[in-house]
Design goal:
heterodimer, A: 97 residues, alpha+beta, Alpha-Beta Plaits, 19% strand, B: 300 residues, alpha/beta, Rossmann fold, globular, binds thiamine diphosphate, binds iron/sulfur cluster
């Protein structure tokens, strides 16, 4: 993510991470999720699904922040995200003042 | 590298599955139709509201929007065309503890059902209306409706509609609605919040959802796909919470005023009925609590 200035607590605050799930054959290829995902995680697939639509593919899984917008905007209940537990390695260094 | 991973998500369940009749999904709505997104927002609000499933009922009219009643795993009824509000009113009278939601189209609510709408608003009947405004009668092939903006083309307006449309928020506001909001199918978060507020609001709530209809409205007017309509909403919506509803009329492909326009407290139909009858009949008046009165039956 780009900031106009670096937040003071950037070291402590980790953006949440998410995993995207897509039910390929339920999708009707409207592109809402692909267009409005704030992190540009998704892209149209080149292949067709069973109904003849191009569902999204997860192009940049590492960018997903589990914001849930794709899930909220999908008219077909075909996509959603779940939180991903993040390893807590940095905690000791980041705790001080 | 754009390969389909067909196994992705197959074993997982959509977070709203408990509120959907999954055996009927995929639904009939066209690709890019805003009704699905609105149903998504509605069910998300129901989930967040914490209202037990058995205490909520959904009533639909006829039309593409009316199909919603068939997809929710809640008590629901698909009424005849235009009669969703009287059915919902009856439900509320018979069981005042129910949260009653009407999910219907602009044709259903404002044309054939227009009289029911104005009187339910006048009485401040405690029901919640989600009005899918796609500016036409979509299910029957695209006739113009009372909300079709002037100049928009439809099958019964091949040269463009020359009728003055309703300004819907102004109509329901002036009739007495106590919660009035308008969002588009793009404003999913705000729409969900409004529906959530409406579910908890005592009195007549009305939420107008400007909804993409790529198959009929957009095609007749050469406005592109559902996504193109959402992009139009994004570029042309102005959020004005508390706006004077008189100024919220919609002109063809011009600025769209959205927001929460009215949120006020006023005695509901049940409040005034109880108050007046208690005063005039005295102790003999026992307010009707619904069919479950006295029975502490707590199923799910
Ligand atoms: C009494 C009666 N009159 C007419 C019809 C035909 N009819 C079916 S749906 C519809 C209009 C639907 O328009 P709207 O309520 O805007 O819903 P949409 O399909 O646009 O979502 C009409 C006129 C009917 N089913 N019943
Ligand atoms: S959850 Fe948010 S960031 Fe992740 S894919 Fe969906 S819209 Fe994009
Ligand atoms: S919003 Fe839903 S239906 Fe539309 S492309 Fe994305 S997953 Fe498919
Ligand atoms: S005809 Fe229009 S309103 Fe009906 S399902 Fe298709 S896009 Fe939606």
């Amino acid at each position: 993510m780009k900031y106009w200035r670096k937040p003071l607590d950037a070291a402590q605050v980790k953006p949440p991470r998410g995993e995207v799930h897509i039910v390929i054959n339920r999708c009707k290829g409207c592109g809402f999720c692909i267009t409005y995902c704030p992190r540009k995680v998704l892209e149209f697939s080149e292949e067709f699904n069973r109904k003849g639509y191009h569902p999204p593919v997860v192009l940049h899984p590492e960018n997903c922040v589990n914001c849930g917008l794709c899930e909220a905007i999908c008219p077909d209940f075909a996509i959603w995200s779940t939180p991903v537990e993040q390893p807590e390695e940095k905690k000791e260094n980041a705790g001080g003042k | 590298m754009k390969r389909l991973d067909v196994t992705l998500g197959q074993d997982l369940r959509h977070p709203l599955e408990e509120y959907l009749r999954m055996d009927r999904i995929p639904h009939v709505w066209c690709p890019g139709c805003g009704i699905g997104t609105t149903l998504n927002a509605f069910l998300t609000a129901v989930k967040k509201s914490g209202i037990p499933r058995k205490d909520i009922a959904v009533v639909s009219g006829i039309g593409c929007s009316g199909r919603a009643a068939g997809y929710v795993k809640l008590d629901s009824f698909h009424t005849t065309h235009g009669r969703a509000i009287p059915f919902a009113t009856g439900l509320k009278l018979a069981n005042p503890k129910l949260t009653v939601v009407v999910f219907a189209g602009d044709g259903d609510l404002l044309a054939i059902g227009g009289n029911h709408l104005i009187h339910a608003a006048r009485r401040n009947m405690d029901i919640n209306i989600i009005c899918i405004n796609n500016f036409n009668y979509a299910m029957t092939g695209g006739q113009f409706s009372p909300t079709t903006p002037e100049k928009a083309r439809l099958t019964t307006a091949p040269y463009g509609s020359y009728e003055h449309p309703f300004n819907v928020p102004f109509l329901v506001d002036s009739c007495g609605a106590t919660y009035v909001a308008r969002w588009t199918a793009l404003h999913v978060r705000r729409l969900t919040n409004s529906i959530l507020e409406a579910l908890h609001h005592p009195g007549f709530s009305f939420i107008e959802v400007i909804s993409s209809c790529p198959t009929v409205y957009a095609r007749r007017n050469r406005l592109g796909t559902g996504l193109d309509l959402l992009k139009f909403y994004r570029d042309n919506s102005v959020i004005k919470n508390g706006a004077n509803t008189r100024e919220c009329d919609i002109r063809f492909q011009e600025q769209l005023i959205v927001g929460k326009f009215v949120d006020q407290e006023k005695p509901t139909y049940h409040d005034t009925m109880t108050e007046y009858l208690s005063q005039s009949v005295g102790k003999r008046y026992v307010p009707y609590q619904g069919p479950m009165q006295g029975k502490e039956e707590d199923g799910n």
